[in-house]
């Protein structure tokens, strides 16, 4: 048995009658699908809204049945999308194995993590071990003493360790013999509210009203809690085909809170970092069920619909991706564009072709750039330099060695060593942490575009239709400045938010 997602097509249907007909066709299809077991059926009371159903069925039976369905009924396998953090390039590819699951004959290995000479609890440690021609990733979390034990599978040897502290310290990467030592993490620089990523986008100060009048949606791992994001609206959670209330939006990881903060955090403590557009309206949806899980095509489509139809956002940030395209997500992105919402998507972190949904032509694919010299020696951020000299541009900017690339890339943006909000945890509030990835470059672009759009009265006066989303895309493209990087890695350049573009 396999899981499938079934939805009715909405894109390109501009009349109520056309939308209602499409909705009726999925009802007819489901009524005759007796061989399938319904897992969850999102059947909105609004007769014009998209219906999305998750089912379990025999692949052969589904293939036969699908062949006779009308065009407006989309049936596809459940496709999981991930918000992968980029590991060091020298350990790709790898396969995952839980730190607690040890093979017979495995031997123990303990890593100790400190910051400022003191043990760092709650740090995530990823240990890469090599053997039998492959690399395996083991994951653990440090205890109160700053230690995490691993069981090394028989025949494998420790190769690379990556330490990601909960907050306030740099993520570090240690190779070879250094794994036998305590790993010390230097403190992050808290000299905000501006970081290098603001300056690269043309900002030389914080304008609390920047982004005012622009509504930005985020579909990710959730939101907060965090005092600097108290103004953000919790939309709810979209999990396994179900729609959960606003109280279920809380971040199950830290990725989503970091993304939201990069766009629009409003610092409440001295030295912490402002979002790019702190005046914008923020709307956050959770589409990941838990930290290590993927987000399904059903849940992403439902979140896009809610953010665009219900909350009427102008921009949606999708810092997630898959190597396989989803027709249902594609339809949701086109449908959103037709009501004035532009989706900006992370290009991917596997140093290969652009992932989906970023590769769809209606989306804005964003690659990740770094700043040479940013990050202390031994930090994960300092390891992102490319080997190819052509991937170094002007102003000490470079294309990160993990960024996906290709003709679909519209622009690049800062995505290495970005310091932003992460959820309050373990009795501590107002936390900030460093992250790398196209997941960080995408909200930097979202924030920059929101800042530019907020200064464009012509855009803000436009009706919410395809013309509005096309205008947003055109304004973004007009704001890009060339930094001397190949178009397949940086599109036409990086956004410049320091001046009005009309």
UniProtKB/TrEMBL annotation:
Gene source species: Microvirga vignae
Keyword Hydrolase in record: yes
Keywords carried by this UniProt record: Hydrolase, Protease, Serine protease
GO function term, MF aspect, one: serine-type endopeptidase activity
Gene Ontology terms describing biological process: proteolysis
Name of the featured protein: Peptidase S8/S53 domain-containing protein
Pfam families referenced in this protein's UniProt entry, alphabetically: Peptidase_S8
Keyword Repressor assigned: no
Family: Belongs to the peptidase S8 family.
Domain of life: Bacteria
SUPFAM superfamilies registered for this protein in UniProt: Subtilisin-like (SSF52743)
Gene3D superfamilies in the cross-refs: Peptidase S8/S53 domain
Active-site residues from the entry: 220, 255, 439
InterPro entries registered for this protein in UniProt: Peptidase_S8/S53_dom, Peptidase_S8/S53_dom_sf, Peptidase_S8_Ser-AS, Peptidase_S8_subtilisin-like, Peptidase_S8_subtilisin-rel
Residues in Peptidase S8/S53 domain copies: 211-460
């Amino acid at each position: 048995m396999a899981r499938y997602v079934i939805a009715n097509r909405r894109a390109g249907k501009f009349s109520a009658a056309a939308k209602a007909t499409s909705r009726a066709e999925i009802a007819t299809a489901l009524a005759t699908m007796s061989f399938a077991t319904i897992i969850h059926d999102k059947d909105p009371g609004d007769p014009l809204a998209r219906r999305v159903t998750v089912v379990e069925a025999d692949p052969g039976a589904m293939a036969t049945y699908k062949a006779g369905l009308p065009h407006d009924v989309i049936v596809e396998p459940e496709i999981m999308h991930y918000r992968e953090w980029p590991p060091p390039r020298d350990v790709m590819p790898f396969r995952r194995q839980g730190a607690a699951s040890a093979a017979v004959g495995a031997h123990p290995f303990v890593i100790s993590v400190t910051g400022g000479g003191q043990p760092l609890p709650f740090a995530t440690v990823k240990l890469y071990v090599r053997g039998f021609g492959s690399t395996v990733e083991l994951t653990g979390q440090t205890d109160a003493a700053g230690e995490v034990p691993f069981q090394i599978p028989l025949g494998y040897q420790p190769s690379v360790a990556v330490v990601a502290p909960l907050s306030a310290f740099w993520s570090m990467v240690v190779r070879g013999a250094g794994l036998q030592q305590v790993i010390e993490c230097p403190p992050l620089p808290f000299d905000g509210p501006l970081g290098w990523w603001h300056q690269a986008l043309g900002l030389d100060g914080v304008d609390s009203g920047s982004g005012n009048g622009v509504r930005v949606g985020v579909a990710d791992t959730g939101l907060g809690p965090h005092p600097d994001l108290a103004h953000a609206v919790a939309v709810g959670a979209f999990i396994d085909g179900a729609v959960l209330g606003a109280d279920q939006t809380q971040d199950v990881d830290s990725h989503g809170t970091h993304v939201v903060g990069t766009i629009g955090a409003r610092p409440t403590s001295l030295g912490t970092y402002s979002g790019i557009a702190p005046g914008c309206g923020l709307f956050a949806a959770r589409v990941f069920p838990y930290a290590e899980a993927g987000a399904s095509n059903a849940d992403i489509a439902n979140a896009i619909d809610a953010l665009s139809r219900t909350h009427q956002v102008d921009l949606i940030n999708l810092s997630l991706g898959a190597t396989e395209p989803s027709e249902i997500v594609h339809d949701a992105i086109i449908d959103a564009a037709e009501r004035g919402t532009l989706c900006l998507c992370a290009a991917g972190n596997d140093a290969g072709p652009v992932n989906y949904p970023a590769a769809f032509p209606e989306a804005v694919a964003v690659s990740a750039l770094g700043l040479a010299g940013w990050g202390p020696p031994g930090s994960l951020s300092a390891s992102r330099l490319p080997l190819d000299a052509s991937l170094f541009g002007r102003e000490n900017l470079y294309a990160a060695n993990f960024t996906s690339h290709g003709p679909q890339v519209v622009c690049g943006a800062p995505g290495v060593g970005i310091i932003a909000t992460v959820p309050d945890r373990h009795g501590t509030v107002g936390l900030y942490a460093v992250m790398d990835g196209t997941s960080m470059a995408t909200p930097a672009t979202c924030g920059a575009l929101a800042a530019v759009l907020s200064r464009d009265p012509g855009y803000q006066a436009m009706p919410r239709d395809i013309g509005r989303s096309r205008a947003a895309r055109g304004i973004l493209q007009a704001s890009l400045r060339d930094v001397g990087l190949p178009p397949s890695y940086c599109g036409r350049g990086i956004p410049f938010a320091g001046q009005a573009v009309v």
